[in-house]
Batch of 4 targets.
Target 1
Amino acid sequence: MSVPTPMLATPGPPPGTAAWSVELKFDGMRLMAVCRDGHCRLYSRSRREVTTSFPEVAESIATALHGRTATLDGELVAITSLGGSSFARLQRRIHLARPTRRQIQDTPLEFAAFDLLVLDDESTTALPYRIRRARLESLALDTAGLRTVPVWPGVEGARVLAAVADLGLEGVVSKKLDSSYVPGRSRAWVKSAVRRFGDALVLGWLPGTGAHSRTVGALILGGRDESGGLVYLGCVGSGLSGPARHALRRTLDEIVAPAPDITGAIPREVLAHARWAEAVVVADIAYREISADHVLRHPSFRGIKVDIAPEDVGIPD
């Protein structure tokens, strides 16, 4: 079975009409499960196979499907006590190619399914979302290590977003009930985050001070514009733990590079102390908003992404 190119949501406020359904937005790693003959293979958003990284998830899905052929779209998550998800906890597993039994037990993961693209060898992508969702729910996937993403059809999206904000959850995704599943970004899906989240290239780093003087104090961030040129997005130090600072220093020391050609007004203090690196590391960044000159405001580092190709990182919305 081929691996579909995933459908992507467009950022924006919840549409809030009866023609839409609202789903809880989990904070995890996009995952496609392609299942046949009692076995499942897992693929990242970039369609790279990651089955050996999450063997217990593949087994849970295969068991729940009872041998049926299916392709599921969803999110790999580490669930919190509030029912939300923790990307920081997921980071403990995301880089492990073959986790040990102890690592699997210490960081349990779940697959949160939100769409059904193939069932019993029949493609469902041309069907309206409301029918795909009904067929997904008929599979009763709410078992250990597996759940179906909660949904509120016909409910005003702004009300749901306010409720999830009160619970400290990430946000919601609104989906047009009559929309088919199409690859790439679509306005038929709208993601509304309590905070914005985006990907950024690590262009280099700034040395820390005090206890962090021998390691990374802040990361220099960038993205690519439509012509492929690098654009300065600012620096981030918030969210960097001690272990993360040291791990990033080791990684960036291996990919030292000359100062790149960057568009944007880079502060003098950044230019004076910058240690540049090849633009091949992708960081997951939370931020409040982005300025007119593309600088992220109140950014916070959340982790390194391994399922996004560096050349696909643009400028966050």
Target 2
Amino acid sequence: MHSKWTPIVPNNYTVPKQYQKGEWVFSQLVVEDIDEDYIAVTASADKLRGTFDFFIAWPDKNITKEEDLSNLGWHQTEFGMRTSFAYKIQQVRKDYREYVGCAYIFPSNNPAFEIDAYLWVKSGCEASDSTLFELFVTWIKDVWPFKSVNYPGRNRKK
């Protein structure tokens, strides 16, 4: 188990800022994503509540854009500190990229696992959830240095 401020990847590991497979792109979640993220979070708030076992009340039904911006800033800071990693997920369309959800890699509070990996899709994109989840699992298995991964709420462990 890691402390909150301990990097979860080795110093010599190059953390991917982006991963693309076909029409799907995972990119580092940053404060500049606030407009799309806020729309996705607020539109999906009811289904998101309870997703994260360490913060079951998130997002509050009245989450403000400023609160979401603060969350994005924290994700960006932790990414730089290598203590957790947050990614936006987009589907590449002909003329644009549609924001469909987020994926996270956090240190696990369960000593049996190195990390907890979460993925959610915004309301209206549920048909893509299983495809994106399998892509996420494969990316972690093939690219990341973790040997024991927990996927809370997904009944799948590596």
Target 3
Amino acid sequence: GNQAVILAGINDSVPIMKKLMHDLVKIRVRPYYIYQCDLSEGIGHFRAPVSKGLEIIEGLRGHTSGYAVPTFVVDAPGGGGKIALQPNYLISQSADKVVLRNFEGVITTYPEPESYIPGRAEGYFKEIYPNYEEKRSDVGIAGLMSDKKFNLVPDDLQRMSRRKDYEDNDTHASLKDKRDKRDQLKDKKYQSQMAKLEENDKKNEGDAV
């Protein structure tokens, strides 16, 4: 498959990219990726904005055969890997429908099924491959979707670091730490009130005599 790179002043154009994709398909080469130019030293003058890549995909999707529409990717700095980008076709959503738009600008709604029951297919699959859960990915968003994780928290999150420093500092005390003292004070107050009631009862009995 072909993995073309968008180069400023060379192929950062919808017509040029469309012609390239068509020519690749003619010679039976699959247009696989369109890359955003890397952040490598000495080639900065070739970099086009990411929005140009989205514009190119917008000019291909729906305007030519699906075979000639590659995936636009950014090779994320710092070892983030390939991140696929595309124009946003999902405009909004509610509990019972999604609002979509197509390449022509037509905006429409698609109703969600009312009787959908998730997980049935996996139940059948598990009967044949009972150990597939062990191989199921728990990385990133996939882990959240499979209920293997509740959230994703960066290791260097400053807020969590400050919270840990606060909890480890003996000079600080939380309401939870003061719970025992609070219970003691409540018990002392209760005993004091009961003593006053007993004293009043005895006084009332003396007055009655």
Target 4
Amino acid sequence: MYNYSKAVLDSTITERIENFDKKFSFSIVINCTKENQKYLENITNSIREQWYKNFKLFILVDNENSKEEISKLNVNASTINIEKNKLFEVYNDIIKTDENDFICFLESYETLELSALYEINSKLNERDLDFIYTNEDYIQNNKHIKVNYKSNISQELILSQNYIGKSSFFKLSILKKIG
């Protein structure tokens, strides 16, 4: 049986954050459609409360109501309007112009564990990585209903299913080269 235990920020972790050899910068891009606007507060809270603070937040909206809701959330974000069927053009524009080290694309119904950026920066201080994929934990009505643990990288899985899609962090310089 899976038992979730919430990560706790303590003085040891705070000191480690202050003393990281490399402090990577992250861009987090949230796609917020009108249909998923109701989840926006949860995801922005999970990002605003990250222990590791070296990130920039982009929120993509498809209607003016979302912009109004974002302004109420006390979150520092760049808000970008997207036209219907233009999402990937906006993603590509962000990739071309952004100067952070890594980028992550999320949907507004997702959240990040409060320690997520800290853990990722920790791994990046240990090894030179081009992308990091994470496990997924499905939550409904504040209950953890399904955990998707992803094993070590498997070429077969990557080629046969959407294995790395959600909550993955990609080195921005690699995406710029790909175009």
